[in-house]
Amino acid sequence: MMDATIRNPIGLLLLAWLAAGGQLPPAIAGSLASDEPPAAAGAGANLADTAAAELRVSAAISAGQELAALQQIPLSERTPEQQRRARSLMAQQQHLQDAFDQFLKQPAVQSALEQLRQSNSGTSLEPSDFGQVQAQLAQMEGAVLFYPLMLEDRLELVLVTADAPPLRRTVAVSRADLEQAVANFRESLEKQGNDPFTPAQQLYEWLIAPFEAELAQAEAKAILLSSDGALRTIPYAALHDGEQWLVERFAFNRVNPRSLADLGTDSLESLRPLIGGVSETQFEGTVGGRDVKLNDLPGVAQEVDLISELIPDATVLLNDELSEVELLERVRNHNIVHLATHTLLMPDTPQDSLLLFGNEEIVTLQDLQNWDLSGVELVILSGGRTALDVELGDEIGLTSFSYLMQRAGAEAVMASLWDFSDFTPTVLMPEFYQALITGYSPAEALQQAQIAMIREAAGPEVRQVKASLTIINADTDSESEHPSLRGFAHPYHWAAFVLTGNGM
């Protein structure tokens, strides 16, 4: 497939020539070695300057790492050569920052950012936040921030690392084509019989491939995400690089302005979960002008039992025991709140989106504004249904749930992007909790649980549950044309869950 990234062809040829052992032309070599930043490449710049700029961006992270190492040496102890090199690297970094600042001033970029402010109600990061993010990335080993910005005629990708100014790549894909690709990807994920490889690889080529070299230079192990519009509705974990799913390479964590206080978090030293579950219900009613009927979730009882076996001290409120009052009275003694129940997202009236409690009690987004989750490190919504006829771009319900729970005091929220098999959490959640017990952070624990499902590496208790699912739910182990997508290895099962907040 042809790479749609817009790059200077001369720059790419020079990179290939260098990789083969060739030497830079004197003009470019001198530009890169100079203590003075070269003129920015523009419409009137010559090809040598443009190629030099491309090389400088490609080397920005390694240059930043070198500069950081030099700055660890006290000024009085640096050799003249080290001091000259430090000045040269600082000049190059400042040139990149200036170029990025100029990019932000482009009218099309300003317009796109303003649209984000109006549509997302403060739930997306701003470029002005990147400095704060970068300071925290310096304390987080192997973490980077990925920030895609959709314009009408192109996609702008921004990568923020601990060691360089924000780096940018432009991809020649229109908003309409990108949204269609997202729709194709979502369709391929939401039914186990579908083949997700083609759309997963297409989006990988547009979103991640342009920064593969930089991700390698940064030794990235975790990607923080701040996406907008249709890109919020996809699980980046289920993108495919042609060899493996991206979750097999990276942990993913979505962030928003409420995450900026502390992006990183230590692993939970002790697990004190409060688990609320609704396995029996016959709810019928009108919600947001729609007729809604919710049925039993038989997998919830098994999910709760398996978690309780792993964490005997967990507090469990099942069916009629689960009420909003009871939950909020008990929450202060727990650092995890796990709700295994129906969660409905209403695209037309997001304020009517709801959680179903026992005795058919409903808790809406409006009710969540009165919750106090201070001290809660993680909220998990593992219900069997989290969307109701959600169309492309209608991500506001899930975003609002996560954002409001963070505003109520929760540090991170894990929820799902689409409806899945009732028994999917029965397999994934015990693996997730086992990883937490082992010492992984929430984002890493989710990654480990998803990898276990992909590789069919679940523990013996879960394998026993899976063996019974062919009787309970015949669709769970339906055959796929591709052997690697059979059983729970299809991203339909494992990719739906995403983490938002301070989960690293």
Describe the structure.
By secondary structure, the protein is α/β, with parallel strands linked by helices. It is 40% helix and 14% strand. It has 18 helices and 16 strands. The chain has helices spanning 9-19, 26-33, 47-58, 60-71, 80-104, 107-120, 130-137, 175-189, 197-207, 212-217, 298-310, 324-330, 365-368, 396-407, 424-438, 442-454, 460-472, 491-494, and strands spanning 143-150, 155-160, 167-171, 222-225, 251-254, 273-277, 283-287, 290-294, 315-318, 336-340, 343-344, 354-356, 362-364, 378-381, 412-416, 497-501. Helix 15 packs across helix 16.
Brief summary of the model shown:
The protein has 504 residues and is α/β, with parallel strands linked by helices. Helix content is 40%, strand content 14%. It has helices at residues 9-19, 26-33, 47-58, 60-71, 80-104, 107-120, 130-137, 175-189, 197-207, 212-217, 298-310, 324-330, 365-368, 396-407, 424-438, 442-454, 460-472, 491-494, and strands at residues 143-150, 155-160, 167-171, 222-225, 251-254, 273-277, 283-287, 290-294, 315-318, 336-340, 343-344, 354-356, 362-364, 378-381, 412-416, 497-501.
